[in-house]
Amino acid sequence: MNYKFFTLIALVLSVSASWAQDTDTTMATKQLSEVVVRGFETGRKLTETAASVNVLTIKDIERFQNTTLVPVFNTLPGIRMEERSPGSYRLSIRGSSIRSPFGVRNVKIYWNDIPLTDGNGNTFLNAIDMNTVGNIEVIKGPAGSIYGAGTGGVLLLGGTRAEAQATTKQKARSYINTTVGFGSFGLQNRAISWNLASEKTNSVVSYAHAQADGYRDNSASVRDVLSWRSSFFVSAHKTLNASALYSDIHYQTPGGLTQAQMDLNPRLSRPATPVIPGAIQQKAGIYQKLFHLGLSQEYRFNEHWTNVTALYGMISELRNPFITNYEIRNEQTFGGRTRTTYTFEVAHLPTRLTIGGEFQKSGWVIRNFGNRGGNIDTLQTNDNVGAFNYFVFTQLETDLPQNFILTAGASYNRVKYDFVRLSDAPNIKNIDNFLPSAFLPRIALLKKIKDKVAVFASISSGFSPPLVSEFIAGYQKSNFVPNLVSERGVNYEIGTRGNLLNKRFSFDITAYSFRLQNTIVRRVDEAGTEYFTNAGGTLQNGLEVLLNGWLIRNTTRTPIQELRLFSSFTLADYEFKNYKQLQTDLSGKSLTGVPKHIWVSGLDMTTQPGFYLNTTINFTDRLPLTDANTVYAKSYWLWNARVGYQKTFKPLALNIFVAGDNLLNQLYSLGNDLNPVGNRFFNPAPTRNWQLGANVRVFL
User: Which contacts of 301-308 are long-range, i.e. CB under 8 A and separated by 24 or more positions?
Assistant: First the structure.
C-alpha cells in the first residue's frame, strides 16, 4: 500500500484544524457548511457527512453552454465525463469506465430520487436534458451500504424546481422560462418550461429540443425531451411526488480513428476497409426512446418516524445500426424503494436509525441482425434476457460527545439473471443463474471543529456483479459458459472539508485507497466481437482536492458584485495487480483509460450593471489506451468561457450570453476506445466552437 497520500492528507488535516481554531465566522452567506446533501439518506449538512460527496448547484450547471453536462461534471475532482460522439456519454468516477466501451455503467444513477439505472447496470444518461437539471450530487467510491451493487459511485440528479416568492404577500407564483441558442456545426437548442410554486404545489413542466450537424462526418444528432415534476404538499405530514420523463434521441456514431487518420483529417468518420464497410455506408447510429415514470410518498408520522416509498417504471426502445450488425433492443423495468427513519436518543446521544430496501426487475428482447447499408438483414441472434435484483439496508448514526458523528451501515444484495437464446431453436440454449449474495458493510467517523471544519475517515465494501451484456458477450454459436465473477473491493478513505477566513474560503480534500479484486475488463477478438474477462485486481490510490475562494462577495460598494475563484485537482495512481494476458504479466501497469493528473480552475464574475463572466481551464494528463500501456492519448489543455448580460425588467428577466468552447483549438479525443482492434483509439472532439444564446423568464 502507498502511504504518501495519507501522509499528505494528515498534514492538511492538522493545518486545517489549527486554522479553524483561529478564524471567525460572522458572515451569513450560504456556504459549504449550510449545504444539505441527500447522499446516504442522512439529510445532513455537507460538513457533517462522512463521505466523499460533491454538490453542483444550478449556478454551477449554468456556467457553460447549455447543451451538454460534460464540462459541468469535469469540474469535480475524481470525475471524468466523456462524449465519444454528440449524445454518446461515458461517465467515470474514480476510474470506473474501464468496463464501459460506451454508455454509463458501474455508476448507480437516480433521477428525482428514483433509480434511472436499469437491471443491467446501464443508464441512459443522455435521456436527461441539461435544461431540466437543477442540482447534482456525486458520491464517489463504493456506496453499497445504502445504494446496492456498484463500485464506481452514485449520481443523484434532481430536476429543476419552481422558485417561490421571496415574500409571502402572494401565495402562488407562476412563470414561463424559455431558452434559445445557436452555435457552431449547426447547433440549435430550444427549451421552454412552465413553473408553479404555491403553498400546496411545486410543479415544473418542460420541453427541450436540441440538434446539431456535428463536427465529424456521420455525427449529427437530434434530441427531444419532455419532462414533468410535481410535489404536492397534502398536509404537514404528507407529501406526494410525481416525476415523468420522455426522451426521443437519434445520434450518428462516426466510429474510432487511428492516430494517422486523426492526424490526416480529424473530421473523418471510420473509413471502410477491403472487408468491412465504413460508418457512413452502414449508417451507424443510435435511435433511442425512453419513458420513465416515478411516484413517491413521504409521510412524517411524528417527530420520530418518517417513511419514504417510491414505485417506478421505465420502458425503452433502442435501435443500433453498427458496422457489423443491426441491434434492436426493447426493455421494460419495474421497481421500488422504501426507507423508514426513526430518530431517538440513547444515553442523551441523538441517534438516527434508517432501514429500507430496493428491488428492480428488468426484461429485454434483444435481436441482432446483419446490417446491409443501414437496413435490417438476416437474423443472427434472438435473445430473451431478464434481471432481478434486490437489496435491504440499514444504517445507524449517532452524535457522540466532543462533536463526533459515528455512522455504521450495511446492505444484503442478491442478483439473478435469466437468458434464453431463441434463435438456436430447436436446441434452445438458456441459463437461469443466481449470483452469490453480497454483504456490504460501511463504517465512518467524523469530527466537527467549531462547526467550520470537519475531518472524517471511512471504510466501505463494494461489489459489482457482471452485467447481463457482459455475462453473455462473445456467446454466438458456442456453448455458453458463465465464467465471469463479481468484482469485490474495499475502500479506505480519509478527508477534510470546511470554511475558513470568514467563510470566504472553502476546501474539500480526500485521500483514498481502493483495492478491487476480480476486475472486469473488456476484450475484442480478431473478428471485432467484444467479450469480458476478470483480470486479477487493481490498486487505486488517489487524492482529490476542491478549493473555492470568494475575493468579492455580495457587495454594492464596487462595480464588481462577486468574484470567485475555484480549483480542483485529481491524482489517480491506479495500477493492475496480479493481471496476466495469456503469458504476459501486466501487473504494475497503469489502469487503462485513466489520466494520472487532472487540474481544473475557473473564475466567475458578476457586476452591478448586470454583465458577467464564467471561464474555466482544464488540463488532462495523458492516459494509457491499452492494458499493456503501449499507446497513450496525449495530454491537452481546454479553455472555455461564457460572457453575458442579465437583468430583470418586471415582469421579464433577461439573460443573453456568448459562449466559447475549446478556445485554444486543441486537437484531442474526448472519449477513447480502449484496446480496440485495428488501433482505432480516437474519437476527435470539436475544435474551437461558439454558441449565442438567450434565456427569458416571464412572470405571470
Answer: 301/237, 303/343, 304/342, 304/343, 304/344, 305/340, 305/341, 305/342, 306/340, 306/341, 307/338, 307/339, 307/340, 307/341, 308/113, 308/338, 308/339
Q: Is the peptide bond before 266 cis (omega within 30 degrees of 0)?
A: no
Residues near 119 by beta carbon (within 8 Å), at least 6 away in sequence: 333, 360, 361, 362, 386, 387, 388, 389, 468
408, with CB counted inside 10 A (0-12, 13-18, 19+), is middle
CA triple 37-42-47, angle to 5 deg: 55
| Residue 608 vs residues 35, 39, 390, 504, 596: alpha-carbon distances, Å | 26, 36, 53, 20, 41
Our CA angle for 562, 133, 497, nearest 5°, is: 55
Phi, psi of 680 (to 5 degrees): -90, 80
Residue type, 561: Q
Q: What is the mean pLDDT of the chain?
A: 88
CB-CB contact of 354 with 395 (8 Å): yes
**pLDDT attached to residue 476:** 52
DSSP string for residues in 212-271:
E--SSTT--EEEEEEEEEEEEE-SSSEEEEEEEEEEEEEEE----B-HHHHHH-TTPPPP
Which of the four pLDDT bands, split at 50, 70 and 90, describes residue 34?
A: confident
Please report, for residues 18, 499, 505, 665, the alpha-carbon distance to residue 446 in angstroms, rounded to integers and kept in the order given: 17, 16, 21, 45
Please, what sign has the CA dihedral across residues 554, 555, 559, 560?
negative
Closest CA to 73 of 188, 192, 162, 157: 157
Q: How many residues does the chain have?
A: 700
* Confidence band, pLDDT 50/70/90 cuts, at residue 106: confident
CA dist 546 and 542 (Å) reads 14
Q: Is 295 exposed, middle or buried (0-12, 13-18, 19+ CB in 10 A)?
A: middle
Residue 24 is classified by DSSP as: -
- The Cβ of residue 171 has, within 10 Å, a number of other Cβ atoms equal to 11
- Superfamily of segment(s) 4-191+202-255+264-699: TonB-dependent receptor, beta-barrel domain (2.40.170.20)
pLDDT at 27 over 60: no
Q: Identify the H or E element spanning 409.
A: strand 404-421
Q: How many whole angstroms separate alpha carbon 537 and alpha carbon 519?
A: 5
- Strand-pair category, 122-123 with 632-633: unpaired
The DSSP secondary structure of 518-537, one letter per residue, reads: S-EEEEE-TTS-EEEEE--E
Strand 187-197 and strand 201-212: the pairing is antiparallel
156: helix, strand or coil: strand
Please write down the long-range contacts of 376-381, taking CB distance under 8 Å and 24 or more positions apart: 376/326, 376/328, 377/326, 379/423, 380/325, 380/423, 380/476, 381/421, 381/423, 381/476
Count Cβ atoms within 10 A of the Cβ of residue 630 and give its class: 0-12 exposed, 13-18 middle, 19 or more buried: exposed
Look at residue 227 and tell me whether its pLDDT is greater than 90: yes
Q: Which residues of 266-277 are buried (b: 16+ CB within 10 A; e: fewer)?
A: bbbbbbeeeeeb
Amino acid at 299: Y
DSSP 95-115: SGGGG-SSSEES-EEEETTEE
CA dihedral 510, 512, 518, 520 (to 10 degrees): 30
Segments making up each domain of the chain, as ranges: 4-191+202-255+264-699
Under the banding of pLDDT at 50, 70 and 90, the label for residue 65 is: confident
